[in-house]
Amino acid sequence: MYKISEILGCITEMAPLHWQESWDNAGLLVGDANMLIDKALVTLDVTESVIDEAVENGFHLVISHHPVIYKPLKHLLPENTIERTIIKAIKNDVAIACMHTNLDNSYLGVSKWLADKLGVKNLEVLEPMKVEEDVVTGGGMVGYLDEALDEKDFLAMVKKNLGASALRHSDFLGKKIKKVAVCGGSGFFLLDNVKRCNADAYVTADVKYHDFFNADGRLLLVDAGHYETEQFTKELIADVIIKKFCNFAVSISRVKTNSINYFV
């Protein structure tokens, strides 16, 4: 049995909470840090169904990427899915923690796992933010494919490796893709960095209609989906815990929390 604080501590060793963005809400959000537990359930999002899964299988800690609480709550009433989820967790003694932009800003975090899944190597941080004891942190990653791909072949690879139903992208430019930038989740804010490093393609999510014009004939801008580009964060969190606590059980939630569906 381990304290919740010990389990979360092994994650914050590689992604300290002070690396999170000022607007974020990472860390333990519901529960007692001193509670003793023997297993944890990992998910991308905390929903009522995820808490049901935790209760049914005896998990007293759920670790997510996205915080279940973003904005201050004025009350806890069963009026919306967030409040119902929190109420259900408290009633069943289920603690909830999240590791969000602190993992986004870790060199070993979300974007590195995305890059690895796409075969992008020789990685550098796309937007270095902080240097602490020779550790570079920041948003996104940029690197190279082993072999240059035609644009359609590149998109086919991204779609397959991410299990995406569909991809949205800017105009084809008729050039090979070799240097690739990535950012899990909403990464359009890094586009200027992508341009400065002369990447051939940028894979991220949540790109708005007019934002695609900003590719400006310089690169292939790809929106692969928020869930799709961050889904491997579940594996990342589980992997960090298992390597530190070999006798602690970690399970990845079976609940599909992607809120977007596609009609193709």
List the SSEs and their pairings.
Elements: E1 2-3, H1 4-14, E2 27-30, E3 36-37, E4 39-43, H2 48-56, E5 61-64, H3 81-91, E6 95-98, H4 101-104, H5 110-117, E7 121-132, E8 135-149, H6 151-162, E9 168-169, E10 177-186, H7 191-196, E11 201-205, E12 220-223, H8 226-230, H9 233-244, E13 249-252
Parallel strand pairs: 4-5, 4-13, 5-6, 10-11, 11-12
Antiparallel strand pairs: 1-3, 2-6, 7-8, 8-10, 9-12
**Total helix count?**
9
**Strand adjacency order, main sheet:** 7-8-10-11-12-9
CATH superfamily of the largest domain: NIF3 (NGG1p interacting factor 3)-like
Shape: globular
Query: What is the mean pLDDT?
Result: 96
Amount of beta strand: 25-35%
Unreliable runs: none
| Rg, Cα atoms, Å | 19 Å
How do the helices and strands follow one another from N- to C-terminus? EHEEEHEHEHHEEHEEHEEHHE
Which structural class best describes the helix and strand composition? alpha/beta
Distance between the termini: 47 Å
Task: Give the proportion of residues in helices.
Answer: 25-40%
Please give the number of β-strands. 13
The biggest beta sheet, please?
A: 6 strands, mixed
The count of domains is 2
Question: What is the CATH C-level name of the largest domain?
Answer: Alpha Beta
- Give the name of the CATH architecture of the largest domain: 3-Layer(aba) Sandwich
